[in-house]
Amino acid sequence: MDGTVTPKIPAPHRDDVLLAVISVLAGLFLWSLGVYSSPSRTLLPDWAALVPLAALGAMEPLRRSAPRVTLAVGTAGVIADQFTVGNLATVLIFTDLMYAAVVYGKAAMARRLPVTTGLITVAVTIASVAWLRTPQALMIGVVTGIVSFGPALTGATLRNHREAAEAARLRAEQTALLAETDRAQAVVAERARMARELHDMVANHLSAIAIHSTAALSIDSPATSRESLAVIRENSVQGLAEMRRLIGLLRDAGADSGQEAVAMPSLDGLDALLEQARTNGTASGLDFVLLDGRSPGPGGPGRPAEPLPAPVGLAAYRIVQESLTNALKHAAPGTVTVRLTDDRAGGGPLTVEVDSPYGDRPGPRAPGSGAGLTGMRERTELLGGRFEAGRDGAAWRVRASLPAEERAVRA
Fold it and tell me: Which residue among 158, 176, 194 closes a domain?
């Protein structure tokens, strides 16, 4: 009623109760037969040996829940037993209480008991030899060690093995948890990569299809309809080919069916990409220009002497592709300019810039979801680069700086 909480004492373990009953019955049986451990001691009547037996037997059910108390009572009981005719069962119960105190007691007590009992054994041995000065005096030390130091050492060994096994189990669980976390993160990263790749491949073609189909439906001109249908068919075929390529890569067609995997796109395909954009953007009044400022190499103008790492080349190509798609959707009539700057010779990055006219545009336009900007930003940040997108005067500018060194890609 006063708000205090009384600690609940756990019920004795069934095995401990059974052990207590068997031990006490065994001691009573030995006493009834007149089998004593020290029959020459006649200071007290024979029945006095039953008092320590009963006291230690009562401690057995508490050996797990209260090891400190049971050890204290057990020590007092075994000392009292030395003044009687003695009972072997009392000594055996004490050894079990000592063992249980190390196994089930607190860690500090478990560390101290083997050392303490070892020192007691040595001290008793030395004192016995010095007092009695007979070889038989050594047996007193041996018995002391068997009764106290032996059970304590055994309990300490078992406890260390249990703690080592528990630590190993926890490490295994942590390792499994970390492995599962890594697997989940890998799955999420792979799904994000696939989403970016699928969006960048298909969005360009679907945007062109949406714009030209809207034009064919809104403009009542056979020539315009035929032109729009031709563009729709071309983008449908190219989009289907891109989808098949992605599906083939996902199924690892090159390893399973002997088909050769299609090469991943790179900056070498920008000319074809812009040519396709010009075809798709004619109806919207858009023109597309490529300004390739990369240092020329043996391959000719716009072909660097050292090829870009594949992840950098793919990211740059996809950023240009998505920027052209966004221009096709939203840009006002005018010129869309793509600039490439490769400053690897000076230790700088590969810079990709796409400027498109900003303002209202006539005619049909495709809706946007914002996933394109997110995908371009993710591609850039995965390589450790910087990405910017926003209005710059009369233009909408997309700018990505990609570390072009192989070590940056590996990081």
Answer: 176
